[in-house]
């Protein structure tokens, strides 16, 4: 962190002494006011529920410029990564800070590939779930359970353990997601095939059966790989902050990532792709394109509680750059599968057009986010809606680990312990039950 020459001065209208606060500059993005000594010197906390103005850490991994609609992993624009690199190269970049050269890439791919199988006992654990369990419920359990299977990589303070846990998590997530899917549809689990690429292997485990090989379609594999790249990291979002906070207690990496999976499930976060597609299906059922006007009126009515899912973002106040890339992929996949006239896609296009021109959305800077399109792509590939968020979790795992490892390696790292503004009852005495 680079200190700025400028200082912030905090003054109080009741005449209490003012306080100078240091300011730090990042490489890009807003400066931060360092308030670490504020409580010690003034006895006051800051108040920022939802972290609207709070940088919870310093980080070198991902940068988002919400006004420009820019996303950089380790300095590289998402557009360049999505068109020039594959997912495992992106993983290497997020974990190590630099893109791999040929040898480094081969070595990394080999390491990940060697860890794709899960302990056979995991399937008995999985079999304890109901077949109709939500895949995110299953995944939260399975990822947490990894710590019961891989004891040699659970010490978060040991850099070697952290490295092995990272590789294991990246390698095993596709296997676990595919297992959760196979279990739900009542098909036998398909073991990983190490001669396939990461994304091919995932699709193979999803769609192959013992009686039929899965024929890999390059366009669909590229689309899957792009979904993974676009979701790989997104700086200090809710699930990543959850992973950091959870990991800050010194818990093992599998437990911390399981906490991230649980957080991601919510419809305001990773659950939005599922919610966006469910919304499109519901509009379609209720009259389709003809009824968009009615739906938009509901969205604008604050009392309706209806939101246009897949629109809006806490940070992007411009078009989400991931949405642009996903929109492109959406066209490619639908063309490849001959689904250009897919009614849900047409509906999504019509909704997008209206929302981009409507004053309600324009004035609030609400643009489509990545989830608006990723659902349509996944559905076209044959992935059931209930699995969308699990696929997001698979892709985000590398980001969570990179962020967790960055935190543990930071000499300033401390257990996360927010404070509060207490507005409840003051100290009082219990009355005997007859007098209450
Ligand atoms: N539909 C209708 N109105 C909206 C929407 C929406 N999707 N999103 C925000 N607004 C309105 C909101 O009602 C508020 O209006 P007003 O100023 O009149 O009160 C204004 O826009 C600002 O919204 P906010 O709720 O203060 O914004 P936020 O930063 O707290 O919330 C959000 C961001 C993503 C939770 C929200 O936009 C949302 O719920 N979107 C739909 C869910 C979604 O698509 N989430 C995926 C995010 S991208 C994937 C990921 O990174 O996890």
Mean pLDDT: 94
Inertia-based shape: globular
Radius of gyration: 24 Å
Unreliable runs = none
Largest sheet: 3 strands, antiparallel
Give structural notes.
This protein has 18 helices and six strands. The termini are far apart. The chain has helices at residues 38-42, 78-84, 87-96, 102-113, 122-126, 135-149, 159-185, 198-207, 218-230, 238-247, 253-264, 272-285, 292-300, 321-336, 343-357, 359-363, 370-381, 388-409, and strands at 2-10, 19-25, 32-33, 62-65, 70-73, 76-77. A hairpin with an 8-residue loop joins strand 1 and strand 2. The chain is 50% helix and 6% strand. The protein has a three-stranded antiparallel β-sheet. Strands 4-5-6 form a three-stranded antiparallel β-sheet. The mean pLDDT is 94. It has 436 residues and is mainly α. Residues 234, 237, 268-270, 272, 299, 307-314, 364, 366, 369-371 line the site of carboxymethyl coenzyme *A.
Give a short overview:
Helices cover 50% and strands 6% of the residues. The chain is mainly alpha-helical. Bound molecules: carboxymethyl coenzyme *A (CMC).
Task: Describe the protein's topology.
Elements: E1 2-10, E2 19-25, E3 32-33, H1 38-42, E4 62-65, E5 70-73, E6 76-77, H2 78-84, H3 87-96, H4 102-113, H5 122-126, H6 135-149, H7 159-185, H8 198-207, H9 218-230, H10 238-247, H11 253-264, H12 272-285, H13 292-300, H14 321-336, H15 343-357, H16 359-363, H17 370-381, H18 388-409
Antiparallel strand pairs: 1-2, 2-3, 4-5, 5-6
Helix pairs in contact: 3-18, 6-7, 6-11, 7-8, 7-18, 8-9, 9-14, 9-17, 9-18, 10-11, 10-18, 11-18, 12-15, 12-17, 14-17
The structure holds carboxymethyl coenzyme *A.
């Amino acid at each position: 962190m680079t200190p700025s020459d400028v200082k912030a001065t905090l003054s109080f209208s009741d005449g209490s002494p003012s306080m100078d606060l240091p300011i730090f500059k990042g490489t890009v993005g807003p400066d931060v006011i360092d308030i670490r000594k504020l409580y010690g010197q003034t006895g006051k906390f800051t108040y920022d529920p939802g972290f609207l103005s709070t940088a919870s850490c310093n980080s070198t991994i991902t940068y988002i410029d919400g006004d420009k609609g820019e996303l950089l992993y380790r300095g590289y624009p998402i557009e360049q990564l999505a068109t020039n690199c594959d997912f495992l190269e992106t993983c290497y970049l997020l974990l190590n800070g630099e893109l791999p050269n040929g040898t480094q890439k081969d070595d990394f791919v080999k390491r990940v590939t060697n860890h794709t199988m899960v302990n056979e006992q995991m399937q008995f654990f999985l079999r304890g779930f109901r077949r109709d369990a939500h895949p995110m419920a299953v995944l939260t359990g399975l990822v947490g359970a990894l710590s019961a299977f891989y004891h040699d990589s659970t010490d978060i303070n040991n850099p070697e353990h952290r490295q092995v846990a990272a590789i294991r998590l990246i390698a095993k997530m596709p296997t676990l997601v595919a297992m959760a899917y196979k279990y739900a549809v009542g098909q036998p689990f398909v073991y990983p095939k190490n001669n396939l690429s990461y994304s091919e292997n995932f699709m193979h485990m999803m769609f192959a059966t013992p009686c039929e090989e899965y024929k890999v379609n390059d366009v669909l594999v590229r689309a899957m790989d792009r979904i993974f790249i676009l979701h790989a990291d997104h700086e200090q979002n809710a699930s990543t902050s959850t992973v950091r906070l959870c990991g800050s207690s010194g818990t093992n990496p599998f437990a911390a990532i399981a906490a991230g999976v649980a957080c991601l499930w919510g419809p305001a976060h990773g659950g939005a792709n599922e919610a966006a597609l469910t919304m499109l299906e519901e509009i379609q059922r209720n009259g389709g394109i003809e009824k968009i006007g009615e739906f938009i009126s509901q969205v604008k009515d604050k009392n309706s509680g209806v939101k246009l899912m897949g629109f809006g973002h806490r940070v992007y106040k411009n078009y989400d750059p991931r949405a642009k890339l996903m929109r492109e992929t959406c066209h490619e996949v639908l063309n490849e599968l001959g689904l250009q006239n897919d009614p849900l896609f047409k509906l999504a296009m019509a909704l997008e057009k209206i929302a981009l021109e409507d004053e309600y959305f324009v004035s609030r800077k609400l643009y489509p986010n990545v989830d608006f399109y990723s659902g349509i792509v996944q559905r076209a590939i044959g992935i059931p809606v209930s699995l969308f968020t699990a696929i997001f979790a698979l892709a985000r795992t590398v980001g969570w680990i990179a962020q967790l490892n960055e935190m543990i390696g930071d000499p300033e790292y401390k257990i996360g312990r927010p404070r509060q503004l207490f507005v409840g009852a003051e100290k009082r005495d219990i009355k005997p039950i007859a007098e209450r």
